[in-house]
Amino acid sequence: MGLDLREVNMPSASLILYQAGIRHLLPPDDGLAPAADQQAQEMPDPERQEQHEAVEQGYPAPWSTVWSTLSPPYTMVWTYWQLSEDLGPSPDQQRRTLFKTILNSLGWPKGSVAFWPLTSYTPPDHTPRLDIFWSGVSAVQAQMIVVFGAQAFRTIFPERTSRFGFTSTPEGLQIVHVPGPQDMLPDNREMKNLTWSMLCPLGPSR
């Protein structure tokens, strides 16, 4: 089952968790798997597969590689400034492990999250490609974007104040702004706990 966003009042849930003083520690995890390898629970129908392949042909690397691993639809897209770098030949292992740990700890069904870069990376520079980013958000039919870190948020939403929290677009797309990997690493418990408390209410009912 996918996530039912209609049952989640995100601002209230986050506030309740914060006021209750909930503090969860992310458990250690030495395993590492590519963040983009999250698979959908069901195979897409033939018409959707044709659309999927058509979009794939138009994306440059690293988006074309990411797209080949995805099976839309996805409930949410996750992104952060260095994602394209971490999908390349020299990823930052601490960041990769961090996101693997977060996903394992949340325990959501596979296919809930699609990682999608907002920049291209040619060492040492990241170049925003919001045209490709928004195309992917639309193609996976995401209802929510989780943006990790202030730099990513300011790039995607330059007209908005960079403040951790919940908001939405006029079209009804839910936006969740949480601390980035540079905020949580190497072991900033406060930022990890804040991220955890904001992500937990987004999960499916158990």
Highest-level CATH class: Alpha Beta
Q: What is the architecture at the second tier of CATH? A: 3-Layer(aba) Sandwich
Which strand order do you get reading across the main beta sheet?
Answer: 2-1-5-7-6
H-E string: HHHEHHEEEHEHEEHH
Largest sheet: 5 strands, mixed
Give the helix level as a range of percent: 25-40%
CATH topology-level fold name = Uracil-DNA Glycosylase, subunit E
Number of strands: 7
Number of domains: 1
- Rounded to an integer in angstroms, the radius of gyration calculated over CA atoms is 16 Å
- Low-confidence segments, given as residue ranges, are 1-48
Strand content: 5-15%
DSSP helix count? 9
Mean pLDDT: 79
Question: What's the multimeric state?
Answer: single chain
Distance between the termini: 11 Å
Which structural class is indicated by helix and strand composition?
alpha/beta
What name goes with the CATH superfamily?
A: Uracil-DNA glycosylase-like domain
Globally, the shape reads globular
Question: Can you walk through the features of this model?
Answer:
This protein has 206 residues and is of the alpha/beta class. The protein has a single domain (45-202), classed as Uracil-DNA Glycosylase, subunit E. The protein has helices at residues 10-19, 46-57, 63-69, 83-86, 93-106, 130-139, 150-156, 181-184, 189-199, and strands spanning 76-80, 113-115, 119-122, 125-128, 144-148, 165-168, 174-178. A five-stranded mixed beta sheet has the order 2-1-5-7-6, with helices on both faces. A hairpin with a 5-residue loop joins β6 (165-168) and β7 (174-178). α2 (46-57) packs antiparallel against α3. The longest helix has 14 residues, at 93-106. The chain is globular, with a radius of gyration of 16 Å.
